[in-house]
Amino acid sequence: MIAQLVRFVLGPLARALYRPEVHGVENVPLSGPVLLAANHRAALDTGVITFATPRQVKFLGKAEYFTGKGLKGKLLAGFLGGLGYVPVERGNAQAGLAALEAARKVLDAGGVFAIYPEGTRSLDGRLHRGHTGVAALALATGAKVVPVALTGTENLQPNGAKIPRLAKIGITFGKPLDFSRYEGQDYSPAIRRSVTDEVMYAILELSGQEYVDTYHKRPNEGAA
Fold first, then answer.
1. Tens digits of per-residue pLDDT, 119-153?
2. How many helices and strands, by DSSP H and E, does the chain display?
3. Which of 94, 114, 131, 215 has the highest local Cβ count within 10 Å?
4. 179 Cβ partners below 8 Å, 6+ apart?
């Protein structure tokens, strides 16, 4: 019920308030497994994608967000579930495999799953090298990959702002990428890298960002 509230009430309200520029939404297949691969500018990117996509979208979310106590905890869990978050344990050696498995279940069921190949938000505004999880999922499930470019979302909630601000934002869906030519080669590191690079190049063409061929380090990560 909360999912319907988010999709059919909050979604239209958000679109009316922020008036995002949405392009290429017809590129999102209306049936079958679809993997949305997006650049990542801000924490609110997930909401923008959810409200702009014609189908229900699933994302990964920290499991602890769903285990809060009392009414507040239940409301938060329900709201996040309505946005499409799938709870996954993080912070252990099996976290990466668990995340891929959760995503694969959505795609195997013919659903839509969104992923940020950079792995974290871009703090410098540039597009960074993609991790190969996006390729692993596409190759294992046969899902079409739709590149997605978000613009302006970093201005919705600048550092220190507790309430989202009005800002000009845009989301562009590129043409679906089909990697069926690599069927049966999903365990090849070289193929995964090639597929990931193709996806990142498609995002780059849509977003117009500067590209950096290195992984983006999180703020708490030291130099490799």
1. 889 989 999 999 999 999 999 999 999 999 999 99
2. 7, 9
3. 114
4. 135, 138, 139, 145, 195
